[in-house]
Amino acid sequence: MKLFRREQSSLFSEILDWMLTPILLLWPISLVLTWLVAQGLADKPFDRALQSNAVALSRLITVDGNKPRFQPNPTAPPFMGGVESDADLFQIRGPDSALLAGDPNLPEPEDIGEEYGSGRPFLREVQINGKTLKVAAIWVQLPVAPGHPALVQVAQTLDQRAELATEIVKGVMLPQFAILPLAVLLVWLALVQATKPMHRLEERIRARDPQDLRPIDAQTVPVELMPLVSSVNDLLLRLTDSISTQKRFLAEAAHQLKTPLAGLRMQADLAQRESASAEDLKLSLRQIGRSSVRATHTVNQLLSLARAESSAVVLQHEPCDLAQIAVDVMHDCAPRALVKFLDMGYEGPQPGTPGTVIRGNPTLLREMILNLVDNAINYTPSSQDTPGVITTRLLVDPFSRAVVLQVEDSGPGIAQSERELVFRPFYRALGTRMDGSGLGLPIVLEIARQHVASVSVDASRPGHSPPGACFTVRFAGVAASASNA
User: Could you report the per-residue pLDDT of 16-67, keeping only the tens digit for each?
Assistant: First the structure.
């Protein structure tokens, strides 16, 4: 039952409803119970009085000449003397049911129970002239008629009982009419006081600077608000990471595009010189072409890195055949490898083999393998007489259900001290003369992180010169669950 309805859900009104509704529902129930208890309390003294009167009257029966007689006591109250009224009646019958005194209209008990002749009073209700009377009766044994006791009955209407019960109910319920509004007011005030911490938390959040993304201090809030504050703090941390990623992306894009754009402008200025010859124009155009290619590659890499960093909440994962993706990437890169006289191949299970399916994003996985192979093509020296070797390898462990992807080459390799640094954005290994953006390996690391995988780099031919490089991406224990999906 909604006592306080609003267009928008209110926690205050919900709590108030749940607290006041039981009170208002229990109040009429308490009225009924109070009336029943009052009836019982009112009946007890009247019942005891009736039984006492019946016993007192039974003692006034005497025997005169073998005949029972009723001898009123002059010192008894008028009732004992036989004065009848609408509220108090009595009847005395002898052993032969002859009326000795009292009202003849009181009916005799229909059922003779264990009280017959016992001398103990018992109670019952009868109807006379449309009125209900409570009767206390007692069977009295007389020596003139053994086995045939006399009957003494005292009756009383229920009016006085009802009046007493009403007075009891009034005495109990009238204070409740004053207490109930007071209880509602106290509940209201208690709720207002209890919700003050929520309002203080709201004021703290509203007073914050928009740039302040620090977590909210959870020590000053009630325990019930801790889950909400923890969720908000988690959101603030994720928002901070997202903003930091955007700022870093903008800074990286501005830094990396500055050099090729400056080169484009310089070459354009050189080409516009009046003294520039045809050869100078051709050279400037070639430089402009290289700068534009570098700028395009940098923009593509930056976009790939941004997509990889945000893929956790944007892109959905699905079953992906890693062998099929690796083979497709090798086919796409084959023309470039042939131009450089590179010997490039694939080793591992064929596409569709059980165990090669993992759960991930196919676009990102293709981007990861493409960056590893592209990195190997760029940094592996090769000639027609001495071709370089690039191998993409896929390993499946049937026991640990792990899938391992390796891309190794016969290039100069990476020094031990630089194997962690190469995964930082824009880092270029010392001694390399290749033109690149330094974003390929950070993209690989970010995509691997999105797929709960680890990336490491080692020498592909330890002890040889050149030692080569082997990049390993380990997808731990995901093959079976992905294939079952």
Answer: 777 777 777 877 888 788 888 887 777 888 888 888 888 888 888 877 777 8
- How many Å apart are CA 280 and CA 284, to the nearest integer? 6
Residue limits of CATH 3.30.450 in the chain: 29-165
Q: Boundaries of CATH 3.30.565.10 in the chain?
A: 315-484
Give the CATH number of domain 29-165.
Answer: 3.30.450
- Distance CA(88)–CA(66), nearest Å, equals 30
Q: Cα–Cα–Cα angle for 204, 209, 214, nearest 5°? A: 75
Per-residue tokens: 426: 């824009």
Chain-centre distance for alpha carbon 224: 13
Ranges of the chain whose pLDDT falls below 50 = 1, 3-4, 77-87, 311-314, 430-431, 479-485
CATH of domain 208-314: 1.10.287
Other residues' Cβ atoms within 10 Å of the Cβ of residue 245: 14
User: How remote is the C-alpha of 221 from its chain's centroid?
Assistant: 19
Q: In the CATH scheme, what architecture does the domain 315-484 have?
A: 2-Layer Sandwich (3.30)
Q: Could you give the CA distance from residue 313 to residue 296 in angstroms, rounded to a whole number?
A: 27
Q: Which residue has the tokens 């499946």?
A: 396
Q: What is the pLDDT of residue 483?
A: 39
Q: In what order do the strands lie in the sheet with 469-475?
A: 343-347, 389-397, 402-409, 469-475, 453-458
Do 245 and 271 touch, CB atoms closer than 8 A? no
CA distance 248 to 258: 15
Structure-block tokens of residue 392: 């993409």
The backbone torsions φ and ψ at residue 242, rounded to the nearest 5 degrees and listed phi first, read -65, -45
Query: Where do you find CATH 1.10.287 in the chain?
Result: 208-314
CA-nearest of 70, 50, 47, 74 to 59 is 70
Task: Please report, for residues 76, 221, 305, 446, the alpha-carbon distance to residue 235 in angstroms, rounded to integers and kept in the order given.
Answer: 92, 18, 23, 21
Q: Which two tokens stand for residue 89?
A: 């009646």
For residue range 274-313, what is the model confidence (pLDDT) as tens digits?
Answer: 666 777 677 777 777 766 766 676 666 666 656 665 544 4
